[in-house]
Amino acid sequence: MYNISGQGTRRRLTPRGLAVILGLLAVLVAAAVFGLTRIEGSPSTALTKLPFGASTEYGFTSGGMLYIEGSTLYYSSFKGEKLWEMFLTGEGYHIESGDSFAVLYTDTAMQAIGVDGAALFPSQEFSGRVLSVRCGKNYIAILKSEENSSKLIYLYDLSGTRVDRLELKGNALLDYGFDAEKDALWTLMVNINGSTPVSTISTYNVANQSDTGAMTKEGEIFERVQFSGGKTYAAGTNHLFAYSETGKEEFSRLIYGWRVLDQTASSKASTFLLAVRQGGTTASTAAKLITLDSEKEYQFRLPAGTLGAFFRGEKVLVVEPGQILTYDLKGQKTGQMPVEVVLQEAWKEGSRLIVRSGEELYLIP
């Protein structure tokens, strides 16, 4: 029984009205007990299970996922809808993907395909051995070991034309790829033959077939390279560096004893997430957020058992076996999301965050 404001007339609650109120109360109780309401600052939905396992060859484009099961290549949306499939002859296939195309390759051949499943050009056959592939916007780089054991990078455009061949001499190649903003090739090499290591980041304009820069630092081993806002950022064993487009060193900061977990960059600044190198799984780990070209620094701690910490927009996501925590860019905890599976590993592929539970893979939305 209740009063209608201003009328003073009593009305009897009908069975139907009682059922509605009881239903609403049940939802609220469930939300309180099982956490159905979203915690402010936490990811908005549960983990998205991927249609393939941890041992599967897979790759992501901007609009979907490629993966191989048995002798079939599948392409599906991020909702899990299969868009097309392709039968593969032979075995030993690997996938490397870009935003709008992917490359299937084996030790001796490679084939580029569009997101519609159509081949971009005829399959390319190689002597020697294909070691790895990288995809840019308009080019493909293939690292290959020749029969005489020398290593070269072959560059192709999306019509299948080989536009250049770069020989890697002397120094050891640690990594290579494309600057997404310029579609320029970069290589990271290190010389350890002297008394101190020497790291070199080289950039190459594929369209003009010309070297555009070389950033060399003695006494450092560069572990991470990123390009953003016209700058090259390099994380070394002792320092963080920022280089201009011409390869001139603009900023550096001592980080000895720390390792870079992730980086986020904008046109105004670049922020790095670091953790101490000695951090283990049995105790919390010291971490900090720093801006390279300023004195800003915010320290906090990663919980014991942390599997990974990553930038997501203006937040930091910290993945633990049973939950995902969120922090702001000052290191203050802002939310958490329990997960229904036990997580064992977490990593980042481009802008996507992936976690593993047993053989199952999930995307963090």
Please outline the helices and strands.
Blueprint: E1 2-3, E2 10-11, H1 15-34, E3 48-53, E4 58-60, E5 65-69, E6 72-76, E7 82-87, E8 94-97, E9 101-105, E10 109-114, E11 124-125, E12 129-135, E13 139-145, E14 151-157, E15 162-168, E16 172-179, E17 184-191, E18 198-205, E19 210-218, E20 224-228, E21 231-235, E22 239-243, E23 249-254, E24 258-265, E25 270-276, E26 285-291, E27 297-302, E28 308-312, E29 315-319, E30 323-327, E31 333-338, E32 345-349, E33 352-357, E34 360-364
Antiparallel strand pairs: 1-2, 3-34, 4-5, 5-6, 6-7, 8-9, 9-10, 10-11, 12-13, 13-14, 14-15, 16-17, 17-18, 18-19, 20-21, 21-22, 22-23, 24-25, 25-26, 26-27, 28-29, 29-30, 30-31, 32-33, 33-34
- Mean pLDDT, to the nearest integer, reads 86
Low-pLDDT stretches are 1-44
Strand elements, count: 34
Strand order in space, largest sheet = 3-34-33-32
The helix count comes to: 1
Give the overall form.
globular
Helix content: under 10%
